[in-house]
Each structure stands twice: as C-alpha cells, then as structure tokens.
Amino acid sequence: MLLSTALIFLISGCARNPQLSNAPLIDQNLPTVEGIKTITDMTAVGFEWTPHYDEQIEGYYIYRQGPNESGFSPIVKIEDRYASHYVDSGLIPGTIYNYKMSTYTKNNTESRPSQIHTVQTKKRLESVPFLQAIVGLPHRVKLLWRPHPNEQVVSYIIERNELDKEEWERIAQVDGRLNAEYIDANLKENHLYRYRVIVKTHDGVLSNPSQIVEARTKPLPKRIENVRATTNLPKKIIVTWDPTDQEDFSHYRVYRAPTSLLFYTYLAKTKEPRFEDLINSNGADRYYKVTVVDKDGLESLKQTTPTLGATLDIPLPPAMTQVSLQGRTAVVTWESVDDRAVKYNVIKKGEGKTQVIQGITSKRFEDRALKLGENYTYEIVAIDKYGLESKPSQKVLVKIPQE
C-alpha cells in the first residue's frame, strides 16, 4: 500500500516539501512565481511579482533564509492569487537574507520554488553628524546637535552615563527631526557627565549611537574664609570676612544660630564683606556662618566651624571699701573691679524714697543731706563709655543718731 502511494506521487509529479510541517505536496506542473522584484529598507524587504490568474492557483508562499540559518522557512501564506505585493518586516539592518516563492492550489499542492533572491537590508542609520555639550552651566548641561539629514528620522533619544558607571541611561526623547537642543537639568554641581544621541526613524528603527561628549557642571563658589565677629560692642555684633574673588559674584548670605549646635537660619544678604547684627541684649552670644552666592544662584558651602560673636556685657559692679559717718556727713568709698568704668551712679535710699546721684567720676561720695534719726543705704553702679550700667554693688547702711 505504501509503495503504491509513492508510485502515484511519482507519476503525478508531486512530492512533499520537507521544510513545512503539514506542508503541501510539490506539483512539478504548477506554474512558478516569476517577475520577482525586491526593494529594501533597514528592517524590511518589499516584494513585487507577476500574479497568476489561473483558477487552480489559490495564492503564494514566501520562504526566507536568514543569517546563520541552514535552510529556508515559510514566513507567510498569501491567500489570494491576485495579490502581487508583500513586505517582510522586523529584519536586522545591514543583513543578507535569501528568499524564494511558490504558488499553491486548493488541494494544498505547491509549485516548484522560484529562483533564490538574495537581498541585503540597508545599513543602520548613523546618528547625528554633530553633537556638542555646553559646559559650566549651573546644575545643568545643554546639548546641541545638527538635525539629521534623513527625513525618516522623527526623534532623538538622549542617553547619559557617569564615569563610575558602565550602563547608559535613557533620559529623554526629543521629538521632531528639526529639533536640535536638549537641556539636562537638576544635576550635581561640579560633576562630569557623558552623553550620546541615538536617532529614531518613523518605523521605530534606532541608529548607532553618536560620538560621546563630556560636560562638567558649574562648581559652587569657593567657601568664605576667615569669618570674624566682635565681642566688645554694645547691643550689636559686627561680622566680617575675607572678600571673595568670585568673578560672577552676586552677594553674601549670613546665617545665625543662638548656639553652635542648633540649625543655622538665614539672617541677611549683603554686597559688602561685613554685616552689623543689632541685638537688644547685653552679653548675648551668637554663632555665625557666611556663604557667597554667584549670579547663577549657586551658593558656596558654609564653614565647618562657626564663628562666635557676642554683644558687650555690662560692667562688673564696684567693690565697697569703706563707709563712715563723719559728723553729719556719710562718706562712702569703693574700688573699681572693671577697668571699663568711667563714672559711677550712687543709689541712696532713705526717708522713704530713692535718689540717684549721677555722673560721679571719683571713687568717693560724701553725703551731707542727712536727717537725724534716719537710716540710709548706699549702692554704687559702674558705667562704661557706652553708657552700660553694672548691677548695683554691695549695699551699705549708715545710721544717723538722734541728738
């Protein structure tokens, strides 16, 4: 029975195509495909052939042999004998492919294959012919390129990496062939980045990467040095520092904290390398840090160690040395403990009232305005050249006897 079947196939000129699962029988008498023409793109091959209008022909098979493939494989069954065009897509750019075609019938028989047609897809597009990076910008890099001359290009893919990385990161896609600029923002200061551009065609084909360009972002201004703050002025602290040599200098920023460990809050900005901090308190400590800002808004780092300033504290109170009653005159003497004292006030209390005798330049006070039988107390206040008053000295008592 098997032998008879084989003889029938041989006599009719039919045989199976071993390259198709469930492949049709090969009929040597069926017309083959002729007039095959091809046109290539980067990822596609277009076919045109002379159609067969014979009623026994149902349609066409197209076979393809790709790189590193030992034989042909069917890629499409065209189920209309009137068809005369087909596009094989999804191919690799710059690659050689072999094709052949055949006709087939309603009875699932197939003609002999056509001649083999060898084609090569077009090479992958090169990227943009010119790419430039604008360096020294604050927290950003500006990329410029020449628009691609090929009108199939519809967009540009921007990729970036850093020197410590091998992988390239896709950061943006710029649509439109004539667009030729991209700004990469929110970058680290004084940091080196590398870029390349890949063009994309309307059918999604990517070019080879462009040349690699490097760009370093603008560094922060140099840290301010030698910050100084006064400790000998009343009600204010004057902070000074060495002026910056920043070419695009904009201004300084002064920061302050009540202690060295607390967060430093912004206090003021100034064009001059000094700032006068008015403080309505004596002996108040303040800690300062100063930065410089350039015209792009980049701010230098603060000092690692803050600078301590202080308002002038009040003088130390005088030390009482002697109090005596000489007749009806009370004599009070004292010594200055603080060499800042330039004059003194005497606080006299007695007869139910308080009296302040001001502007005494010596260290002795004689009081003759006394009443018999009264008790008087005296305190001395030291005053410095700025008018700052010490706390009262030790209190002394004078008793006036009755006569």
Q: What this model shows, in words?
A:
There is one protein chain. The protein is mainly beta. The chain folds into 4 domains: 2-120, Immunoglobulins (Immunoglobulin-like, Sandwich); 131-216, Sandwich (Immunoglobulin-like), CATH 2.60.40.10; 228-310, Immunoglobulin-like (Sandwich), CATH 2.60.40.10; 319-399, Sandwich (Immunoglobulin-like). It has 1 helix and 31 strands. The chain has one helix spanning 2-12; strands spanning 14-16, 25-27, 34-40, 45-50, 57-65, 73-78, 85-88, 96-105, 109-110, 117-120, 131-137, 140-145, 153-161, 169-175, 181-184, 192-201, 213-216, 228-229, 236-240, 249-257, 265-270, 274-278, 285-294, 307-310, 319-326, 329-335, 343-350, 353-360, 364-367, 375-383, 396-399. The chain has a 4-stranded antiparallel β-sheet, with no helix packed on it. Strands 14-13-16-17 form a 4-stranded antiparallel β-sheet, with no helix packed on it. It is rod-shaped. Mean pLDDT is 92; it is low at 1-21.
